[in-house]
Amino acid sequence: MATLPVEYLRTTRLFREKIGDVEIISFEVPVHKYFSRNEIPYLATALDVDFRKMENLITDMKYGRVAVEKLWAYRMDADIIRENKKVLLPDLASNPVDGEVEEFEDAKVLKIHVGPLKEYVRVFVRPRQGFREVVVYRKPPHPAFVRYVAYL
Fold first, then answer.
1. Which end of the chain is more exposed for a tag (fewer CB within 10 A), N or C?
2. Longest dimension (CA), the chain
3. pLDDT digit string (tens) for 36-55?
4. Is the N-terminal amide bond of 141 cis, ω within 30° of 0?
5. CA terminus-to-terminus distance, the chain
6. How far apart, in whole angstroms, are the C-alpha atoms of residue 55 and residue 59?
7. Which are the contacts of 110, defined by CB distance < 8 A and separation ≥ 6?
8. What is the pTM of this model?
């Protein structure tokens, strides 16, 4: 009896968040191993890859070809042992977004503005030997980190 391959790309729930007087739409980020479809714009933009190509790279992981790996997603206002709070990131397709890029010697920082919230999400990309490290940081309320490793 053959086993079905694991689907690493999943559709997750969307949430309406009120931050001050601004309402944004966010999505739930799986904690480990799996990817939400809404994470693709973050990864594709950070790694300078086409959206379809990034989606295909993640989908091909079910055949053993690992190109992008999610190490963890952690919400900083949760106790790591006792609580498991949902990690939420703003949906780049559903919200008005703008941004800017800062290039450094050994890193790149993408500052994403969601509506009037300036630098609400930051994406850090750092090339290492053999891979690139991508860290997504969301500002409070509900601060969170999501860490990826890309072998591109």
1. N
2. 55
3. 999 999 999 999 999 999 99
4. yes
5. 34
6. 6
7. 45, 46, 99, 100, 101, 122, 123, 125
8. 0.91
